[in-house]
Write a structure and sequence with these properties.
Blueprint lengths: L19 H9 L5 H5 L5 E4 L14 E14 L5 E7 L4 E6 L3 H7 L5 E10 L3 E4 L2 E6 L2 H8 L2 E4 L4 H5 L4 H15 L9 H6 L5 H7 L6 H31 L12 H8 L7 H15 L5 E6 L5 H14 L3 E5 L3 H15 L6 E4 L5 H12 L5 E4 L13 E6 L7 H8 L6 E6 L5 H7 L4 E5 L10 E6 L3 H13 L3 E5 L8 H16 L7 E4 L5 H12 L5 E4 L12 E6 L7 H8 L10 E6 L5 H12 L3 H17 L19 H17 L9 H15 L6
Bound molecules: adenosine-5'-diphosphate and magnesium ion.
């Protein structure tokens, strides 16, 4: 026998009406414990006071009706169609579908109730064409009358529906849940905050979000649940930040060192004002005893590498090693060559560690690192493998940090003893997101381009204009410039995309660009091959480089002034901007030409127009965020942050600010959440966020 009422944290099958089979289906949608069911939120609501009666509907009216299925049939004619006949007792209505006819034939059951929304038209009686619908079950009528005015509709799957969890099944289960378990819900927000912010108590909110008395109460319930999510996310951030800021066990890099000055004096260019300022900010961190945890944001081409180089040299001057991790081998190699070349004359020893090196080579490099013969180590993920042992690692730099997960960044950090950490990114974070995504980092921004840069001229063209584009490209190359032609490769394993790139390469090489030297680089080539193609491009032997998106991040060849991006409609804005950043790195006018294929969606069109209109990375990021929404734009998981189910960091920015203030206040006064009023907060945090806190000091 099951207990009548279990703990709210018991597995879901402790509920009377949930056996192992139904539990398994619920597990699949994230419901494991009884408490999770409270958070299985309605997808939308029906307002019964706005539900029309068929008899009084007018031609052209947009409405929702609740009606029972009477019959259905396929109708043949000039256009084949599927007819579904329904009634609500006042009259009859026909729903019409013109496509997927046999599919629809199997969907509906005679006698079941549906909520149907759409536009009513009069054509041989009343009809709705392709209505939106929700299935309410077979005895919906009686039940709905008792549900109240606002009826919750739940997300469901075919498998759930089979186990009895259609919208109605969920409603019945949740009504019972609220009845038996509402009183067991522990309040998660301290009472003084509840009062000050006039929040609905959690138990009420979790009941009313399912069965609200009216829209105002639903709004309040939602606000309360949103506040919870945002508050705990900010609490996590506040704890991380506090933890980091009270740690005084880091390294003091006490001097800048003579060679730093020598280096800067001998650069072929003057540092930008922004570079100087950021270097000062970084050095202030480095000489303090608190471990640095800083993010360097700078648009593509703003000169982040130079800043990283100076920071690394400071570490070396103080007797420490420095490590720089990059997301691709091409980028690691490029950093290795340019940094090595700059530092070698002043006696700093740099090594490269990447996966592609053979065993003997690798053994030697590992030894050079472990014995501190190398001052600076540059590499890929290879750096974080177990057998890599540093000798006094004092500074860790992570380039294009969004390409790495939290764990990988933590691993590199753990190779040293509380080393300073600098993460760099060229993906600007819109201000709205910076409160959350980087809420626990100190931020430096390179907001100035090196002197003499001209914005890249960007155009988009349809593939019918392709030969014109290629003529232009040929003229430019004839005039001594170099070009990229990029093909999309969503996954390095997508064979068909890869084939498109290699086929086009063969074609170009043998026909249109016959008189030029054309190279090919993609992610599935051997490292040594990639390396030799890249260096041939760098020193001008290759004039046109056909590539997949492996060149997306960081590749720096200032003489390349044209980039043609094929199938540009397939790329996101951020990625297009990154790719475009491969040109415009010198002082000559550069061009980016986006080639789009086929019919474009409105969103794709907007992306391409935006690219043509602006080269400002921050502006682009804001628009990208608008187009894609925050979840897509920036994976919260990557940052070790919780997923938000109901709140939206952009739309709910005001609530976010309030929640942030309250969370930071709480932590400032009570780091352990030990006060009596915070008991529920502590419990909830430990239960749901503890694992993320353990990644606390991971930038
Ligand atoms: P990103 O910020 O995209 O990583 P890089 O560090 O690769 O940019 O720098 C882009 C190019 O600008 C490089 O060729 C670099 O040598 C050059 N550069 C960096 N700082 C300056 C400067 N102050 N003046 C002129 N060129 C610079
Ligand atoms: Mg870079």
């Amino acid at each position: 026998m099951k207990e009548a009422v279990s703990s709210i944290y018991s597995p879901i099958d402790k509920l009377e009406t949930v056996g192992p089979k139904r539990a398994a289906e619920l597990n699949k949608v994230g419901v494991f414990q009884i408490s999770d069911l409270f958070y299985y939120l309605p997808r939308r609501y029906l307002d019964r006071s706005y539900i029309g009666k068929i008899a009084s509907l007018k031609d052209g009216q947009e409405t929702t009706i609740i009606a029972r299925v009477v019959n259905s049939e396929l109708r043949r004619g000039r256009r084949n169609r599927f007819h579904l006949y329904v009634t609500d007792g006042t009259s009859y209505l026909t729903c019409v579908w013109f496509s997927k006819l046999t599919f629809w034939l199997r969907v509906f059951k005679t006698g079941e109730w549906l909520a149907l929304s759409g536009k009513v038209t009069r054509f041989e009686g009343l009809q709705m064409i392709h209505p939106e619908f929700d299935r309410l079950g077979e005895n919906a009528e009686g039940e709905l009358v008792h549900t109240g005015k606002i009826i919750p509709l739940y997300p469901s799957t075919e498998a759930l529906t089979k186990s009895g969890f259609d919208s109605r099944g969920f409603r019945r289960l949740i009504i019972k849940l609220i009845h038996n378990y509402k009183d067991k819900i522990e309040e998660t927000i301290p009472a003084d905050i509840i009062t000050r912010r006039q929040l609905m108590p959690l138990a009420d909110a979790l009941a009313k979000i399912h069965f609200p008395d009216n829209w105002e109460i639903l709004y309040q319930a939602r606000e309360r649940l949103k506040f919870d999510e945002l508050f705990f996310m900010e609490l996590l951030i506040a704890l991380r930040k506090k933890h980091n800021h009270t740690d005084s066990g880091g390294i003091r890099f006490s001097k800048v060192g003579d060679r730093v000055k020598t280096l800067i004096d001998n650069l072929p260019f003057e540092l930008t004002g922004a570079q100087k300022r950021v270097i000062r900010e970084i050095y202030t961190d480095m000489k303090s005893s608190r471990p640095m945890n800083r993010l360097l944001q700078g648009d593509v081409g703003s000169g982040k590498t130079m800043v990283a180089l100076v920071a690394m040299l400071i570490a070396v001057e103080n007797g420490y090693q420095a490590a720089l991790m990059a997301p691709t081998e091409i980028l690691a190699e490029q950093h290795y060559y340019s940094i090595g070349k700059t530092l070698q004359p002043i006696g700093v020893n740099t090594v490269l560690l990447i996966g592609a090196q053979n065993k003997a080579e690798r053994e030697k490099i590992l030894d050079v690192i472990a014995t501190h013969q190398a001052d600076i180590v540059i590499g890929t993920h290879a750096l974080i493998q177990d057998n890599v042992e540093f000798n006094n690692l004092g500074l860790v730099i992570i380039d294009e940090q969004h390409r790495f997960g939290v764990i990988q960044r933590a691993r590199l950090r753990e190779k040293g003893l509380k080393p300073d950490v600098l993460v760099m990114t060229a993906t600007p974070i819109p201000r709205t997101l910076s409160l959350t995504v980087y809420g626990d980092l100190d931020v430096s921004i390179l907001d100035e381009m090196p002197h003499g840069r001209k914005p890249v001229l960007t155009k988009w063209r349809s593939n019918r204009q392709r030969s014109k584009v290629y003529h232009f490209l040929r003229d430019q190359v004839a005039a001594g410039k170099q070009a990229f032609i990029v093909f999309p490769l969503v996954e390095e394993t997508e064979k068909s995309d890869l084939k498109a790139a290699t086929d086009s390469y063969e074609k170009m090489r043998n026909s249109f660009f016959r008189d030029y030297s054309v190279g090919l680089v993609h992610g599935r080539m051997k490292s040594t091959e990639k390396e030799s193609v890249m260096s041939a491009f760098k020193n001008g032997q290759i004039q046109i480089l056909v590539s997949t998106t492996v060149i997306e991040v960081g590749v720096d060849v200032p003489n390349a002034t044209i980039i043609v991006i094929e199938h540009a409609e397939r790329f996101g804005l951020t990625q297009l901007h990154q790719l475009r950043g491969r040109v415009g790195r010198g002082d000559r006018q550069s061009y980016c030409i986006l080639i789009a294929y086929g019919e474009l969606s409105a969103e794709a069109q907007k992306r391409l127009d935006t690219m043509a209109a602006t080269t400002d990375g921050f502006k682009l990021a804001e628009i990208d965020l608008e187009l894609r929404g925050p979840g897509e734009f920036f994976g919260t998981k990557q940052h070790g942050l919780p997923d938000l189910r109901i709140a939206d960091v952009v739309a709910d920015i005001k609530l976010l600010r309030t929640a942030r203030k309250d969370a930071f206040n709480l932590v400032a006064n009570d780091l352990q959440l030990a006060a009596e009023g915070a008991t529920g907060t502590r419990h909830h945090f430990i239960k749901n966020y503890r694992d993320k806190y353990d990644l606390a000091w991971v930038a």
